[in-house]
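Supplementary notes (optional reading)

For those who missed the lab, this is the record we used. Protein: SET domain-containing protein. Length: 362 residues.
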Amino acid sequence: MADSSLLRVEHIAGKGRGLVASQPLKSGQVILTESPLILYSSSPLFPPPPSSSYCDHCFRTLPTTTSTVSCPSCLNHHFCSNKCLSSALNSSHSSILCQALSSLSNSPLLQQQPLQRQVQARFVVALHNLALTDAASSQIDTLLSLHGTPDDSILQDANFLHDLISPLFNNIKLISVDVIAEALAKDRINSFCLMEPYNPNGPQRSIKAYGIYPKATMFNHDCIPNACRFDYVDTTDNDDDDGHNNTDMIIRLIKDVDEGEEVCISYFRIGRDYATRKKILMDDYGFVCGCERCKIEATWNEDKIDDDGDVAEHVRFLRKYVCDVKNCGGTMAPLPPKHDDSPSNVLECNFCGNFKITDHLI
Ligand SMILES: C[S@@+](CC[C@H](N)C(=O)[O-])C[C@H]1O[C@@H](n2cnc3c(N)ncnc32)[C@H](O)[C@@H]1O
């Protein structure tokens, strides 16, 4: 876990809260490592997938050669190891959760619902699970302190899901219909996706799970970010000794950052064109980006991209930090600084995991 004194929350004009460096920070530095407050599968509850391709607890892709373990009660949820099964039975797949999920997948009411509502049902089940933990009320307060306000469509979702799900958890008082509506609104804006592993020949990577990471979600967006997120869902061993889990989110700096400078990530792959970025940011996050790159690209002349002379700074940035591996387009960030504090010249892609040596950092 990075030192929490590295960043402070500040009000940023036109953006709400944001994270600002409390001291000069170095490119490659890990500035945040965080576990999810809520993590839930992106699969619809109905129809149940014929065979799951990932562990229902840690979301690692299940090996095809070795056998996996199933929940002894429902047989519908699969785990990569006995260790994951046993952790799941005490948390993400406790007996009350198992019964709730089974009952929901057999519910004719839910079966008629669109995919999005079925995934929301998973979130609301995870919310009830959070309400059963010892630190329930502070964790729910944390969730409700995030950005996002319910609109009419979320209020309808909340009413439907409250009636369907609350009775399965004996109507826990902490989770009223209003709390469900608020939480759904927070989830819509603040959840991060955990993705299938990169495959150069396969289809687009699909989403395995959604997670809410309350500190990481304080980062605002920039189309030329100075930090980016990494996760190692399929490559990290869960090691109880250092307390790191494979579902942890890691935020690493792409460039040096001055004290007082805002640290931003990109909410999607940075290579996307202006029109696509503009649409995603408005439709999914409700804002118009005013970053330097958007200002230039709003009146962009495409020919400039091939001009090797006086190219805009963001074009140099993209050439350097967009991964050029086939069908990737992820963001590359330097590895953490070396022991003598000098910057690493090795860049790692946050999407395909490729490494590349660079001559100089901009
Ligand atoms: C995940 S939250 C980030 C934290 C948020 N600013 C807060 O106050 O909690 C995403 C929301 O922050 C705001 N935001 C993020 N980046 C922004 C930007 N570049 N310009 C304007 N608003 C931004 C938008 O309201 C967006 O829906």
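If you only remember one thing from this example: The first helix runs from residue 82 to 89.
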